[in-house]
Amino acid sequence: MHAEKERILIIDDEEVIRDAISRAFVKEGFSVQGAPDGESGCRLFREFRPDIVLVDLKMPGMSGMEVLAEIRNEDPDVIKIVITGYATISLAVDAMKLGAYDFLPKPFTPEELRIVVGRGLEKRRLALETKALKKEQENIRRNMISLVSHELRAPLAASVQFLEVVLGGFAGDISGESKELISRCDTRLREMLELIGKWLRLATFDPDYMVKQFTEINLREIAKKAVDAAGPLEHEKGVNLYLESPGNLPPIQGDEFSLAEIFNNLIGNAVKYNKAGGFAKVKLFEQGEEVRLEISDNGVGIAPEHLPRVFDEFYRVDGRRQASVKGSGLGLSIVQKLVDVHGGTIQLDSSLGEGTTVRISFPKAFQNQENNSV
Fold first, then answer.
1. Domain residues for 73?
2. Which of 78, 112, 84, 106 is CA-nearest to residue 11?
3. How far apart are alpha carbons 41 and 37 in whole angstroms?
4. How does pLDDT run across 112-146, given as a tens digit for each residue?
5. pTM score of the predicted model
6. Less Cβ around it within 10 Å: N or C end of the chain?
7. Residue 50 domain-assigned?
8. 241 and 261 share a domain?
9. Same domain (yes/no): 238, 345
């Protein structure tokens, strides 16, 4: 008997075949269920979640090939074995293309069936063990990164606090020159803290966990908050920042914190890399089955040779030491990952000296929910 019963699903229109296979494997401690056609087999697959599926290719209604394709979309890792009385090389090749692990022609003996199913289940066990091991290794990696980043951040944060005390005059008077040097140290330490935070965000990014937290989100509300938050920078840079959005914008499925990060990053770039008297426009609108975001500006722009790399990690168009605007080179990389996990697309167009436009498309809520249910 198996400590945890492995599950076998039989999809075959012949009741005799289903009963014979079921009796053989139930005796050996497996959990077995059967379906007489493709439609009911696919429904049962979603409920039963088997480790291995035996599929007859020739059935009335939904064909075995269609069943294989459906199962592959549901769970590409499940073991699929084709059983058929019309075995040909071309059928076998087509079945393998749809993810079939093996091909068993009828009639077959109980021993032949046990051997094929045994091999398939062993492959399934190894795949699950490998997946579990990779997950454990990933958890160890994430925990190590979190620990290291904490050890890096703690002394930096403490140093910033001490420098704030000195700059505030609570430790006694300091000369103007000393104050300027301390202020520069304070600025550089804050940049390091920001860099570590962004690096940690990338290194521990978990799209699967994020998707599980998705809720219906109104992008207009997030955009308004991001525009308001950029107000001080807008006034400092002398840039005109405004939002254009309909009041009835449909929601999307997403993570509020991550979507806010997208807006804050892109709006920040549109304002920072601009010029006095310039503009930055945030536009939201509905198009087809998508909600679209456009953030455009008439700032410094980007030269053509840099455009292919703007989403690369740590890549900065204006270099590091000579840059007039400080940054980590991680912002757009993080934005792209966050857009991807929301099922969206992102495109950046820019001309040097003329400005930049970033276009993002998100699927509407109902479409994303359908995709997540697969």
1. 7-108
2. 84
3. 6
4. 889 999 999 999 999 888 888 888 887 777 777 77
5. 0.53
6. N
7. yes
8. yes
9. yes
